Amino acid sequence: MNRTLDKLRRRGPGLALVASAVLMAAGLSAPAALAADDYAQNVTQPSASQVQINFTPTTPALYVDVHYTGVPGVGQQNVRMTNGSGTWRTTVNGLSSGNVLDYWFTYEKNGPQYDTPHFSYTVGGDGTTTVAAPTFSPPGGTYSSAQTVTISSATAGATIRYTVDGSTPTASSTLYSGPISVPNSRTVNAIALKSGSTTSPVSSATYTIGTQAGCPTQSDTPNFGPNVRIFDPGMSAATIQAQLDTDFNNQKDTLTAQMADRRVAHLFKPGTYNNVHDNVGFYTSVAGLGQNPGDVLINGDVTVDAFNASDNGVALQNFWRSAENMAVNPSGGNERWAVAQAAPFRRMDVRGGLQLYPASYGFASGGYIADTKVAGQAASVSQQQWYTRDSQLGSWNGGVWNMVFSGTSGAPATTFPNPPETTLATTPVSRDVPYLYVDGTGKYRVFLPSLRTNASGPSWANGSTPGTSAPMSQFYVVKSGDTAASINNALSAGCNLFFTPGVYHLNQTLNVTRANTTILGIGYPTLVPDNGVNAMQVSDVDGVRLKGLLFDAGTTNSQALLTVGQSGSSASHAANPTTIQDVFFRIGGAIAGKATNSLIVNSANTIIDHIWAWRADHGNAGTYGWNTNTADTGLVVNGANVLATGLFVEHYQKYQVIWNGQGGRTIFFQNEMPYDVPDQASWNAPSGVAGYAAYKVGANVTSHEAWGLGSYCFFDTNPAVSSYHAFEVPNTSGVRFHSLLTVSLNYRGTITHVINDTGGTTPSGTVPVNVVSYP
Fold first, then answer.
1. Distances (CA, A) of 98 to 127, 131, 461, 666
2. CA dist., res. 55 & res. 52, Å (int)
3. Which residues pair with 757 in a beta bridge?
4. Which pLDDT value is given to residue 59?
5. How does residue 10 score in pLDDT terms, banded at 50, 70 and 90?
6. Cα gap 534→250, rounded to integer Å
7. Between vectors from CA 643 to CA 487 and to CA 132, what angle results, nearest 5°?
8. Whole-number Å distance between alpha carbons of 523 and 624
9. What is the pLDDT of residue 176?
10. Rounded (10°) CA dihedral 705, 200, 388, 744
11. 16 pLDDT exceeds 50?
């Protein structure tokens, strides 16, 4: 038993409220409620701004605490309820119509205390509560043999309907009447219904049966190798700072570190760190090891700026660095994250403002935020473009060419092109990244967030992120000395992969064939295919998660660096898609790499969530040039219903993106055409028009939609070069584009039209040509 929990329970009811609050803050909890019939709960609304939460335990309780979020301007509250005739009550004020109250209870029963699941109530709705979402026992995961699964809802009297074929359950789906057998790998979806109440959200559990048994048991407290720093709140601030400063000095210099092989990760165990300042250089991942961002609090800074004199005050090359899963109370009131591409800012709780520009106010070319809260203002100022997904901002300020938001409260309204801001109320489909954390016993686990549809706000806004977790005993930790053979042996044995910081040369393709495999990297582990092999092939299966990898093309041409699904794949994976997140591709720059395509997606329903595919325009001598780092296309999509959220593709020599699959959607696209086109004759499309479009939708596609797209030209080698259009799409009502633009940087070459024959030629002055919608 966890000793912290044990000590808190033994102190009795007088400290129970404090105990439950401490447990919540630490990401821990009391045991789950014994059964749905252990209590009854509901919410009433006596006035437009007030609700009353009621809880009636079956067995008289010494105390009941309610925890709730959702009151505007107020964080999580932990309140001892008042008992009246066996029903415990609390009144919540300061609400208005549309506010969603998320609440749950801690109650005593015969000595021990128990936690209930979360419930929700919408103020000003129909006065009914939402039925508690079903839970599964055992939870989804990987098992060596068939499982018998019990489905339950904490709402007394609720009925459950479920499916086992991946489809979304409805009121007419199979009625749950008792434990169900799961003899082989499948996804079980369920809803709970009750007359007079709102039907619960869909709950999902994916079971992988029989394929994990061969994975050799790994350590739950693994050795992560020499490039991972693990900090503990018991360490002195001076000791921590000395290590951070040493790493920063090794990683900061744009001229010497940008294309070096050094990689590092800074991991902070749960707790509070005072006077810690982590300046984040190249190939550095900074992350908290709590289950929720607030479990790690930095009273200090996690900073990216134009650090070097050679940067001349601009942040145009602040690539390949990340911050994730922690709270920061900035020492000066504002966090600074002045980055360019491949620098995600995820699962962050910024208790102040967020400045996305250099202190010098110089140019920057980012960027990406997801699953994040910013209490104050997020300001882009000199950022050319930015995408923010499923987040909560105090406010937003700024916009140069293309600022895009989806599922983000506090985002500005759509005003493109003046100011150039495009906002979608929700993100159609998202699944937040897998991440490493330490549980209450000191063991490492990887959390696997659930799929979200029509998502808005951080996944952890009302408590813990929904999902499941896997122990590190199911992960093969890839470290220096591992080969393609050893990695493939681990995959074929049924292991997941955890890549530590380093550069890994591959003389054979990494084959990912098992459904629900997770491949997670920290510190920008870099995969380099040798002798022309393709670096990684993912089979057309459910639920593969790829996160935190850098594919760096080898000096012998590869046909593709990463392929998801076999050619011709057609199976639906809507209930459990493959996700590609913070996965980056580089052709040249460090070595004279070559790859025809960087990413090919054949599997339906794949989510591409933040990639940067980059054919280098600079780097080490001899590694870049028109005939040196050759690469046709950054992304080819053949699968149906693929979604891209945060798509950065630059400098490829033909089409940057080719989208052949039906039902595709893109939210945010940033592109630069190749700088080094030698002459027009070398760069005309097969159709005969001048140049290649940046984003081409296949001629047979009848349904496609995209929001917030920018393509820039800088034909520096030969400014006489032009491209006829940046976006080439079929003229059909089902293909729709919103908020798109072109720019000629420093007037080095031109783009004649924005999309097809629509939109004017890029003028001088580095100003955009905008098209609000097409057709």
1. 12, 18, 16, 29
2. 10
3. none
4. 87
5. very low
6. 31
7. 90
8. 25
9. 93
10. 0
11. no
The SS3 of residue 9 is: helix
pTM metric for this prediction: 0.76
Beta bridge pairs of residue 475: 496
Q: How far apart are CA 674 and CA 617, in angstroms?
A: 8
Question: Considering Cα of 220, then 224, then 228, then 233, what sign does the dihedral take?
Answer: positive
User: Cβ(751)–Cβ(721) under 8 Å?
Assistant: no
Closest C-alpha to 656, from 583, 581, 711, 700: 711
Q: How confident is the model at residue 9 (pLDDT cuts 50, 70, 90)?
A: very low
Q: Are 101 and 120 in contact (CB under 8 A)?
A: yes
Contact 507, 483 (CB under 8 A): yes
Q: Are strands 284-288 and 321-330 parallel, antiparallel or unpaired?
A: parallel
At 344, which amino acid appears? P
Element of type H or E holding 338: none
Taking alpha carbons only, the member of 643, 563, 636 closest to residue 609 is 643
Please measure the distance between the N-terminal and C-terminal CA atoms of the chain and give it in whole angstroms: 62
Both tokens of residue 246? 């040493």
Contact 418, 401 (CB under 8 A): no
How far CA 395 is from CA of 16, 69, 373, 523, in Å, comes to: 37, 20, 11, 31
Instruction: Please report which confidence band the pLDDT of residue 212 belongs to, taking 50, 70 and 90 as the band edges.
Output: very low
Dist. CA 591–CA 584, nearest whole Å: 16
What are the residues whose beta carbons fall under 8 Å from the beta carbon of 132, sequence distance 6 or more?
Answer: 36, 117, 118, 119, 153, 154, 155, 158, 192, 200
Active-site residue (options: 108, 672, 705, 728): 672
Cα–Cα nearest to 527, from 540, 536, 537:
536
Task: Report yes or no: 416 and 398 within 8 Å, Cβ to Cβ.
Answer: no
Please tell me the chain's helix, strand, coil percentages from 3-state DSSP, rounded to the nearest 5: 10, 45, 50
Distance of CA 287 to the CA centre of its chain: 14
Q: Torsion angle, CA of 240/245/246/250, rounded to 10 degrees?
A: 140
Please enumerate, as own/partner, the contacts of 417-424 that have beta carbons within 8 Å and a separation of 24 or more. Answer: 417/739, 417/741, 417/768, 417/770, 417/772, 420/739, 420/741, 420/768, 420/770, 421/396, 422/707, 422/708, 422/738, 422/739, 424/667, 424/707
| Residue 215, pLDDT score | 82
Q: What is the pLDDT of residue 32?
A: 44
Number of Cβ within a 10 Å radius of residue 401: 21
Are 739 and 417 contacting, i.e. CB atoms less than 8 angstroms apart? yes
Residue pair 211/177 in contact by the 8 Å Cβ criterion: no
Cα(132)–Cα(139) distance, integer angstroms: 16
Q: How far is CA 316 from the centre of its chain?
A: 23
Strand partners, 397: 379
The encoded tokens of residue 60 equal 């008289």
Q: What one-letter code names the amino acid at 311?
A: D
Q: How confident is the model at residue 4 (pLDDT cuts 50, 70, 90)?
A: very low
Amino acid identity at 115? D
pLDDT at 15 over 50: no
The per-type count for the chain, helices as H runs and strands as E runs, is 4, 59
Q: Yes or no: say if 61 and 108 are a contact pair by the CB < 8 Å rule.
A: yes
Predicted confidence at residue 145, as pLDDT, reads: 67
- Mean pLDDT score, 726-752: 98
The per-residue pLDDT for 23 is: 33
Cis peptide before 367 (omega within 30 of 0): yes
> Using CA atoms, how far apart are residues 591 and 661, in angstroms rounded to an integer?
33
Hunting for tokens 């582990």 — which residue is that?
525
Q: pLDDT exceeding 70 applies to what percent of the chain?
A: 93
| Tokens at 402, concatenated | 């293309």
* Residue 672 appears among annotated catalytic residues: yes
Length of the chain: 775
Helix, strand, or coil (residue 22): helix
Rounded to 5 degrees, what are φ and ψ at 134?
-60, 150
Main-chain phi, psi angles of 464, to 5 degrees: -70, 150
Separation CA 476–CA 497 (nearest Å):
5
For residues 246-268, average pLDDT? 98
How do beta strands 633-637 and 595-601 pair? parallel
Alpha-carbon distance of 303 to 286, in angstroms, equals 10
